[in-house]
């Protein structure tokens, strides 16, 4: 996009990823070219590739638009070809592509080359899906059964509800039992002492 035309009704929009609508840059939003010629930012492609099912053959990523498959290299999404055309439209200071790599589900980039051994010189973002990788196994025994019970999470309400049910049964069932035994509701027989 060039400078806006003074006669145009609105300025030209910046080049952006059509998944996340963020403007391309030379780090996590680097424009990556899929085999179908659609372009998305590196972060979105990395998120899509980490979300692939484990039984998918050969890390084939379907394009979000046309569903054509793209082979993800062993190094991950950062090794995909960068769209040089879109990178050239960025400001001059953002046209130099930075080195990015994957560490598990983290997309990493070195901020400065002053001290490559310093872990603080790297920035990373986790591109994994929000669900945990492996669910925790509940403990065995009664504690495990209670941890699987969704109602047991709110034990105060369960305790209060149980007490109310017991009281309700005592109020309703006691007179019914009395009526069945005596034939009437006069279960309290008063003995009047004669003087």
UniProtKB/TrEMBL annotation:
Entry's Gene Ontology BP terms: protein ubiquitination
InterPro entries, alphabetized: RING_finger_E3_ubiq-ligases, Znf_RING, Znf_RING/FYVE/PHD, Znf_RING_CS
Alphabetical keyword list: Membrane, Metal-binding, Transmembrane, Transmembrane helix, Zinc, Zinc-finger
Transmembrane segments: 158-176
Superkingdom, natural source: Eukaryota
The RING-type domain, residue ranges: 17-67
Keyword Metal-binding attributed: yes
Single GO molecular function: ubiquitin protein ligase activity
Keyword Transmembrane listed: yes
SUPFAM superfamilies to which the protein is assigned, alphabetical: RING/U-box
PANTHER family, per the entry: RING FINGER PROTEIN 223 (PTHR22791:SF4), RING-TYPE DOMAIN-CONTAINING PROTEIN (PTHR22791)
Protein name, per record: RING finger protein 223
Organism: Fulmarus glacialis (Northern fulmar)
The organism's taxonomic lineage, starting at the top: Eukaryota, Metazoa, Chordata, Craniata, Vertebrata
């Amino acid at each position: 996009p060039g400078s806006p035309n003074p006669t145009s009704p609105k300025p030209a929009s910046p080049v952006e990823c059509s998944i996340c609508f963020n403007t391309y840059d030379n780090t996590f939003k680097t424009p990556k070219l899929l085999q179908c010629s659609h372009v998305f930012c590196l972060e979105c492609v990395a998120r899509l590739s980490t979300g692939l099912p484990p039984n998918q053959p050969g890390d084939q990523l379907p394009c979000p638009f046309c569903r054509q498959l793209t082979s993800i290299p062993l190094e991950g999404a950062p090794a995909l070809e960068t769209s040089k055309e879109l990178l050239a439209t960025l400001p001059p200071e953002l046209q130099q592509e930075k080195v990015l790599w994957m560490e598990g589900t983290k997309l990493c980039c070195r901020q400065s080359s002053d001290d490559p051994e310093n872990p603080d010189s790297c920035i990373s973002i986790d591109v994994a899906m929000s669900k945990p990788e492996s669910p925790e196994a509940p403990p065995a025994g009664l504690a495990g059964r209670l941890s699987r019970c969704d109602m047991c999470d709110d034990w105060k309400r369960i305790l209060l509800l149980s007490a109310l049910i017991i009281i309700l049964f005592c109020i309703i069932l006691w007179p019914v039992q009395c009526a069945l035994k005596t034939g009437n509701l006069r279960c309290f027989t008063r003995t009047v002492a004669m003087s």
